[in-house]
Amino acid sequence: MNTTIKLAVASALFAAASTASAGIMIPAGDWTLDIGGNVNAYYTNTHGSGASVAGGLGGSAPAAGQSSNTSNITTGLLPNFLTVSGKTRENDLDVAFTISIQPGAATATAGTLGSMNQRQAFLTFGDKSWGSIKLGKDLGIFASDAILSDMTLLGVGAGAASVGNTTLGRIGTGYLYADWKSQIAYSSPNWNGFSFTAGVTQAWDQLSSNNGATTPVNYSATSTGRGGSEPAFEGKASYEWAGDVAGKVWVSGITQKVQSLGITNLGTQRAEAVDIGANVNVAGFGLTGYYYDGSGVGTTLQMLNGFDTAGNKRDSNGGYVQATYTIPNVGTKLGISWGESKLDKTAQETASNLVAKNEMWTIGAYHPLTKHLNLVAEYSDVKAKAQDNTEGKAQTVSLGAILFF
């Protein structure tokens, strides 16, 4: 569990999460198996008002002049994880694998269970002298540090009004979703705090929510299929340091050819994005700053709404700032964050209800009731503004708990 959480979920976010990740260690011949995960659930109440914005994260009114009020019991941004991993040392190589499933806590519709995901299935091999190679499905490389630094990873954030396997946290209101991708990646050793990762990942289709489609739904990297004639290329580099003033800085990027299911004139073009971020921690205080810039990418999912219906690239950018403080001897972490994601219409487009900007304020309290169990309270205020200046708003209060084992 230590390996899984550190690589893919929450130990990069809070010390409470990493120290609670004990796992169940099982010797099995040449292997050491580790079974672990987390379970979380939240009561959420979302008050929505205003217009419906295509690709927007604000609430929408059921009728003109009215508002909506939605209560759910659901999983937060971090899905429930049940993970089995194993490691061994053979022929001077560290060999390991991870397989996990993510059952939801929500009831999707009357009498049916919420969705279940399979986000991880990968192997690694390598040595501390030269690094490691990963093959399989895991968290994407680009924008991964943005989501792992987001305080709402242990909470809810945006998107609580729609029942699903997870909420959105700050996805779409400060960073693009790193996603869980099939990949072949190389990670360097740690050279006095500096390290990098580079890899090829499965390419996304390019779709547009204002062109009859709402989400990229298929993967392909064939010359005649979807996703382009080649995989996506992703990479990141970071420098991390310890001490009384500890911290980390990072940059990452993605580029891929894109084709289309829903945009007739797109042809084959290239979408790309870069980001930069930093964390600093001193005397219980934490500060995070993050910024991204893209062309041919959207505001939430990387390849959603990146092009207009004529096949012209849209530009996008965004970022967030976050401040936290851990109360001494109590352990409660208090946090406040603000972020936005913006999408520019092309010169050929007229104003529409397609999203122009998602913006969110979040305040939260994360209390370690035990070393494994954290109580969480959050309030998030989201505003979505469309290209035609119509707006949708949503305010969400969430209360719940997350347990690591």
Brief account:
By secondary structure, this protein is mainly beta. The protein contains 3 helices and 18 strands.
List the helices and strands and how they pair.
Elements lengths: L1 H7 L6 H5 L4 E5 L2 E20 L16 E8 L6 E10 L2 E11 L12 E12 L3 E9 L4 H5 L31 E8 L6 E8 L30 E10 L3 E14 L10 E14 L2 E11 L19 E12 L6 E11 L11 E14 L4 E14 L4 E14 L1
Antiparallel strand pairs: 1-2, 2-3, 2-4, 2-18, 4-5, 5-6, 6-7, 7-8, 8-9, 9-10, 10-11, 11-12, 12-13, 13-14, 14-15, 15-16, 16-17, 17-18
Can you offer a commentary on this structure?
This protein has about 400 residues and is mostly beta strands. It has a single domain (about 1-405), classed as Porin, CATH 2.40.160.10. Helices cover about 5% and strands about 50% of the residues. The chain has a 16-stranded antiparallel beta barrel with strand order 2-4-5-6-7-8-9-10-11-12-13-14-15-16-17-18. The protein is globular. The termini are close together. Mean pLDDT is about 85; it is low at about 1-20 and about 210-225.
Radius of gyration: 21 Å
Query: How many structurally independent domains?
Result: 1
Q: Secondary-structure element order, as H and E?
A: HHEEEEEEEHEEEEEEEEEEE
**Strand content bin:** over 45%
User: Oligomeric form of this entry?
Assistant: single chain
Strand order of the largest sheet: 2-4-5-6-7-8-9-10-11-12-13-14-15-16-17-18
Low-confidence stretches: 1-22, 208-227
Count of alpha/pi helices: 3
Mind telling me which CATH architecture this is?
A: Beta Barrel
Shape: globular
Quick one: CATH superfamily? Answer: Porin
User: What is the CATH level 1 assignment?
Assistant: Mainly Beta
CATH topology: the name is: Porin
Q: Biggest sheet, in brief?
A: 16 strands, antiparallel, barrel
Total beta strands: 18
Query: What structural category do the secondary elements indicate?
Result: mainly beta
Task: Give the mean pLDDT.
Answer: 84
Pfam families: Porin_4
GO molecular function, one term: porin activity
Domain Porin: 10-386
Organism: mine drainage metagenome
